[in-house]
């Protein structure tokens, strides 16, 4: 019988934010993690993956629910975990061995024993000979090896990793993944389970036994997919690619909601993706050039874009109804094709029509400008309205992107110096 190492029971997390009030980040998360499992956690940016990992580590307490380790609720920090961070989190003034030994700080071991364990881990993670080096003398990959060493020296039951490879270049990351996987699969480390947050579906399918997919706003478990292929896995193999496709499709399906006009009208002031009109136009042209349907995952791969950069573009194309998404495939709509084939001027007209139809927040800006007798309004006015909905920082970003879209569509104009928005017709009149 499989033994439950970690049980997350009805975990919810809420933050009380001054600008947005009470925000639920995690909602009713129930996950059991068994001994022997390597689990990946995937989800859109800002969905709460890191928060969930920190709750498992006992670094953040849930608003509701409990974390059980070996069947018992944890109180304070979880004694069974070691954590690896994306940013390495090394102390620059300590040497490699001193940084690794930090993992044993709270253990009542004799100094010689700490030294012995640290040296053995350094050897294991391939840093033999660098014991006395300082972080600044090491490459990024070596620094992350120290980060992993500091977690492993504790001989934790559970290794938690928060995007451990995302700060590294591709080759270094591949190398480190292989080494870590070797330690794990050949049981060279006493770790009973690994939980890794990642943005990379391919990384999850390559390394782990299970991929848990979270939604956003709030995060709930939307899929829990077993990955049963034996190691070492071949990334070109059809089984591998179809699993990557499947997870991609789950993630995108949740990300890109089908938006009906009536629905849009009800949902005033919904956020738009921060994708400049230029990038969006280029993307629509590209999809048009590629032919009818295209697998989103392969397209992202071909463009060398990761999910985080790629999804917003797809989502914006979908919001404006230039493209449809179906089971992980993207296809241009009739308007999308028209747009791709149109002249510059025709494109602006089409973009304007789609904006007014499907982006209520844009409609609102135009409506406000129209209702003013001089057809102009200060940026600050819109920022203040948006702040109530999106928070201070996001309000500025949202307005910037809407100005970019509105300018492209020749719907509105913006005087950057005076920080004033105009209706396009009004700008023309002023310039005369
Ligand atoms: N201490 C905090 N106070 C307020 N809000 C927070 C806090 N920590 C996280 N959040 C919010 O919780 C949400 C989830 O954040 P989290 O970092 O867990 O997401 P994530 O999925 O790991 O994101 P990413 O993929 O971008 O790293 C975000 O909206 C974030 O702003």
UniProtKB/TrEMBL annotation:
- Molecular function terms, GO-annotated: ATP binding
- Identify the Pfam families for this entry: AAA_assoc_C, ABC_tran
> Which SUPFAM superfamilies does UniProt cross-reference here?
P-loop containing nucleoside triphosphate hydrolases (SSF52540)
Q: Mind listing the UniProt keywords for this protein, alphabetically?
A: ATP-binding, Nucleotide-binding, Translocase, Transport
Indicate the segments forming the ABC transporter domain, all copies: 6-241
Name residues in a coiled coil. Answer: none
Q: Which domain of life is it from?
A: Bacteria
Q: Which InterPro entries match?
A: AAA+_ATPase (IPR003593), AAA-associated_dom_C (IPR018632), ABC_transporter-like_ATP-bd (IPR003439), ABC_transporter-like_CS (IPR017871), ABC_transporter_ATP-bind (IPR050166), P-loop_NTPase (IPR027417)
> This chain belongs to which protein, by name?
NitT/TauT family transport system ATP-binding protein
What species is given as this protein's source?
Neobacillus ginsengisoli
